Amino acid sequence: MQEFPKVYLKPGRDHSLKRFHLWVFSGAIKGLAGKPEEGDIVEVVDSSGNYLATGHIQNGSISVRIISFEQTDAGKDFWKTKFEKAFEMRKSLGFFNNPDTNVFRLVHGEGDGFPGLIVDFYNGVVVIQAHSVGMWRHRKLFAEVIKEILGETCVAVYDKSEATLHTAMEEEGEKFLVGKSENVLVKEYGNSFEIDFQTGQKTGFFIDQRESRKLLGNYCKGKKVANIFSYTGGFSVYAAASGATVVDSLDSSEKAIELAKKNMELNFGAKSAHHYFAQDAFEFFKKEGNNYDVIVLDPPAFAKHKQALNNALKAYRRINEAAIRNLNANGILFAFSCSQVVSKDDFRKTIFEAAANTGRSVKILHQLTQPADHPINIYHPEGEYLKGLVLFVE
User: Fold this and answer.
1) pLDDT tens digits, 42-64
2) Considering only CA atoms, which of 139, 148, 94 is closest in space to residue 114?
3) Residues forming the active site
4) Best CA proximity match to 232, nearest among 263, 211, 267
5) Are 275 and 204 in contact (CB under 8 A)?
């Protein structure tokens, strides 16, 4: 077995690892044996030197991301077994060989035992995004293993880690690791979308909202719908496909609006009667006459770290309050937060405050979270990042 540098924990700070939590925080560390660099594999031991886990060391408050609770050489066979388990789960859930839905998540970080790694599947194009230097260092091996497992199902593997790892990416940049591909067309519940995986946000599409988009369709027939923070127009497509009489898409990014237009045209032709607004959401709601039967609020993460939490909760309250005020009687609001540091209780309390400030009667119809291809490791509750409420506003 290969010898790795050791991370010694302070006395009494090993309880979380014994409960299979996947992070070691800097405050729990007593010292190091060896001189590991960021991204190196290390073994975490208790204060007496007893083995606890293996992981990648990194700078920051999260000092080690755990990849195994058994000693391992972390070689190709180790990673291949992990990928096979993740892919088999998706197969058992019916994601492979589904002509109506060929876009889904293959690996979801801690939920699949790959802390710091996201792998998405876009109709044959696989996009890797590393959120840790340790995972990024394995990118070529990962691409090789993914191609071996998927075979002809995989036409290309693309590394899209620049946005998440600026320092590590300075010299290499983003690139294809296997094959080549331009923008790719995908199907989601029969709806068509063009994915710009090279320059788009995240890995190109917000796959985690698939089931929420489908649910939206139940509420849109004959309704006037606004999709705020629309990005590529995913919710807009579902609203139009379900018979909405008006669909307005709003995003502060002109490029996102162009992508939304393209996706609407893919599904409904160039003459589809939909409206697009490239402007700030708060300013949009201040205008007279912007009243809707259904509003979707799926903003970017207002808080990416705990220091920003209070300001984020204020922003969520303000935007949801504005939306509730702009809903017609008996309207429907789909409200979301994708900020990991915003808990379910924080989010629900914030929506409560927004509703109370309007004085309107509001009922919760659905409580939403991420779909099955974005699993949550039961020992790592921080993985439950997506929160959603569907509200009925009298």
Assistant:
1) 999 999 999 999 999 999 999 99
2) 139
3) 338
4) 263
5) no
pLDDT for the residue numbered 389? 98
Q: Which residue type does 155 have?
A: V
Confidence of residue 304 (pLDDT cuts 50, 70, 90): low
CATH numbers and ranges of domains, the chain: 6-68 (2.30.130.10), 76-186 (3.30.750.80), 206-393 (3.40.50.150)
Q: End-to-end distance of the chain based on CA atoms, in angstroms?
A: 65
Strands 6-9 and 41-45: parallel
Q: Is the dihedral of CA 284, 286, 290, 296 positive or negative?
A: positive
Q: Are 139 and 159 in contact (CB under 8 A)?
A: yes
- Residue 214 contacts residue 226 (beta carbons within 8 Å): no
Distance from C-alpha of 118 to C-alpha of 146, rounded to nearest angstrom: 13
Whether the per-residue pLDDT at 174 is higher than 60: the answer is yes
